[in-house]
Amino acid sequence: MVEEEDEAVYDEDLDDGAGGADGSHGKRKKLFSKELRCMMYGFGDDQNPYTESVDILEDLVIEFVTEMTHTAMSIGRQGRVQVEDIVFLIRKDPRKFARVKDLLTMNEELKRARKAFDEANYGS
Amino acid sequence: MADPARIKTESNSEQSLAAGESPKTEDTEEVPVTSADTESKDTSSQSIIHENKQDSVAEDEGTACHPASKKLKVEPEKKKDRRQKVDEDEIQKMQVLVSSFSEEQLNRYEMYRRSAFPKAAIKRLIQSITGSSVSQNVVIAMSGISKVFAGEIVEEALDVCEKWGDMPPLQPKHMREAVRRLKSREQIPNIKHNNILFH
Hints:
The complex is a heterodimer.
Chain A: H1 2-18, H2 33-43, H3 51-74, H4 83-90, H5 94-123
Chain B: H1 7-21, H2 33-40, H3 43-65, H4 70-99, H5 103-114, H6 119-130, H7 136-163, H8 172-184
Helix pairs in contact in B: 1-3, 1-4, 3-4, 6-7, 7-8
C-alpha cells in the first residue's frame, strides 16, 4: 500500500512537470487524492484508479465547490454562504437535494441524541 | 451492482445498515459524520433516531401539505403509515441484498459508504473563497453534494467506458466525455457561460 502511494506521488510530479492534466490551475497541491481513490472504487471504478483520472476528478470537484460557493454568495445574504442558499441552488437536482435534506436531518437527530445521551450520563 | 444514489432508499438503508453493522465497525476515521456516529451509539438511541426520523419527516410533510382541518387530518396519518411501511420494506430489501454480497462487492460497498471528503479541507476551500467563516452545516451540505457530484461523473464515465468497449480503470478520455455529456444535460454548473439571446 505504501509503495503504491509513493508511485502515485512520483506520477503526479511527472505530470506537473509536463504541464499537468489541466494547466489552468497551475501547481495546486492535491487536496483529496486518497479520499477520491476510495470514492472512485466505491462508485464502480477499479480498485486502483489511474492517477490522471483522480486528478481530473479532483479538479472537477474543486471547480464545482468553487462555483457553488460563488453563486451562493451572490444570492440570499450577499457575501455569505448559508445552508438555505445551497439548498436553493440544488433544488432542481433531485439526487443532490434529497441527499442534502437527509444529511441535515440526520445531523439534527444526532445532535439531539448526543445531547440526550450526555444529559443521561450527567444525571447518573 | 446496486445503484448507490437512488433517492428514496438511501436514507433509510443507511439507518438500517447503521443498526445492522454496529457490532462490526470500529474504525470511524474516514466515515462521514452521520454514519460514524450512528455506528458508535447504542441500539437504543439508534431506534430512537429511526423513529424520530420517520416522525419528523412525516410531520414536516403533513403540516406542509395540508391545512389544519379535521377531515384532512386522516390523510397525513395514512401517508405516514404508508411511508413507514415503504421505508421498512426498503430497509428489509437492502438487508437481504447486502447479506448476499460477495467479498469483493462488500469491499466496494464499504468504500462507497465510508468514503467522504475531509471536512477540514472542504471548510478551508470554502473559506478561502468567501473570505469569511462558514457554519458547520454548510460544510456538511457541501461535502455531501460534492460526493454525489463525483459519483455522477464516475457513473457516467463508466457508461462511456462500457459503450466504447474499454475496460476499467477509467481513463481521462472517459472522464472528459462524461463531463461533456453531463454539461449538455446541465448537471454541471457553469456560471462562466453567458446566454446572450439577442446581440
